[in-house]
Amino acid sequence: MTSPTRAVHAEGLTKRYGGKTALDSFDLTVPAGTVHGLLGPNGAGKTTAVRILATLLRFDAGRAEIAGVDLRRDAPGVRRRIGLVGQFAAVDEILSARQNLFLFGRLYHLSRPAARNRAAELLERFALTEAADRPVGRFSGGMRRRLDMACSLILAPRVLFLDEPTTGLDPRGRGEVWDCVRDLVAGGTSVLLTTQYLDEADQLADRISVLDEGKVVAEGTPGELKAKLGGDRLDVTVHDAAALDRTAAIMARVTGGEPQRHDDGRTVSVPVIDRVSALTEVVRELDAEGVTVEDLALRRPTLDEVFLHLTR
Amino acid sequence: MSTLLQPTPDTGVPYRVRWAITDAWTLTTRETSHWLRQPFEMAVGLLFPIMFFLMFGYLIGGDISVPGGGDYREALIPGTLAMTMMFGVETTMTAMAADTQKGVTDRFRSMPMSASAVVMGRATADLFQSALSLVALVLCGLLTGWTWHDGLPSMLLALVLLLWLRFAMLWIGVWLGLVIRSTQATASVQILVYPLAFLSNVFASPESMPAWLGALAEWNPVSATAAASRELFGNPGWGGDSWAAAHPVLLAALWPLVITAVFLPLSVRRYRRLSR
After folding, report:
1. Do B7 and A55 touch (CB under 8 A)?
2. Least Cα separation, residue A106 to chain B (angstroms)
3. Residue A124: count of CB within 10 angstroms of its CB
4. Per residue in B246-268, pLDDT tens?
5. ipTM of the complex model
6. Structural domains for chain A
7. In what residue span(s) does the ABC transmembrane type-2 domain sit (chain B) (predicted)?
């Protein structure tokens, strides 16, 4: 089989609910074998986009192709090529993990022996063999999610949609899901992932689209998005909180940027363009004014800062 | 590996029909697996109507007399059977709401499986479970002295009419499950089912109720099926002068038809609206 080079391609997808536009001329291209992150606050349109691309929602305008198959013309064809992991672990909690995989395998029209073999294979791959015959209701959140993903991968789909796959999971569960996603991508699956967590997009995605109020407000690699915020940042942490105002004033004067105070009450950040000279100048001025500095750091902006900047 | 796992595209009507039946059966076995996994819950479900029969037959109904001197407990078995069919609406609604809320329905919808199978599998499993509770209650009746008096064909026709009512309840259940979606809200519907079931001739004569309530009770679909079963089993009934009381079998055939004609299209529309 020839593999299309684009896992997902969407042009001008638009979805309206009454007078409200949930998704506004949404464009997206996900090259095969890559992870694309849809990032945005609640209600930004991330889930709407994924539900449209996974054939669950009709759309009002635009067109899209999944693995080379047109979404409007051949929805069943799209369904054979995708896996969907929604916001809840959509598995049967009374049945065992093995029974779930067998059930969904049969519904994917595998023969009984093929469904049984595929279940065993996926249990092994998602490290669920030991718990395979226990009811899913007694699984941890991370295990349930892993089973949920396994059920979406029965047909080894080209494209996997993950809608907030780690919402509600503890850090360990998140780590488990991240490892699964990395393994899948290493095996050639393309992933479209929505998340509210910037570190998740930073960790997993090759490219990111930032959505706000149904519109894509920025698109690029995590590095490009961070660069958009205007280079590096200088953090100064002072020993005495009383010196914070003076420090902020010095930093503003030296760099010409607008200082931001952190929640700890003792740290100020400011964007810098000429890294080293700004650093040297700030240190000299602080020393001259007698401010005791506890910590000083030059760093790349975090995605949080990018995100707040873009969706403000 | 991936080529082996790609099923052939669904072309042609025979192919689609075959898979619609296979998918529905697969989903039926999902429900039967639930029963095997949760035998206690299954047993409680079967004992629930028996408990009603015993409570009314032995604890509450000691003084209730049936016109013509019939045995109250004889009239109670067909009534409880009809009530059990009506309570089936909760089973369907709860299961449908749980699947929809947890995203299982969305998973089905994102898969290359037959769309009609989602409901047909549920229907088959629910009818099968209701048939089991009919058998359990009939056995309980036989043990406590109840029996049918008008021959096997009439008795079987009564069971068919009972399941016909259950079939109609399926569509109300599917519709409610899709409308409600949350498992918490299903609890309030479950409570409201009681007054609807009791506003009938199942446990008491409509003639003993205030006139307007009695009239409602006589026209209740549950009453029609209960009265029809009483007639077909040859068990004593309440009688009455209304048209409804005089034509129970006809009404027991018509009511579920009307309910299905209303709620089946509503359910289909609601299911389609999931993609809006």
Report:
1. no
2. 7
3. 12
4. 899 999 999 999 999 999 999 99
5. 0.88
6. 6-226 (3.40.50.300), 229-310 (3.30.70.980)
7. 40-274
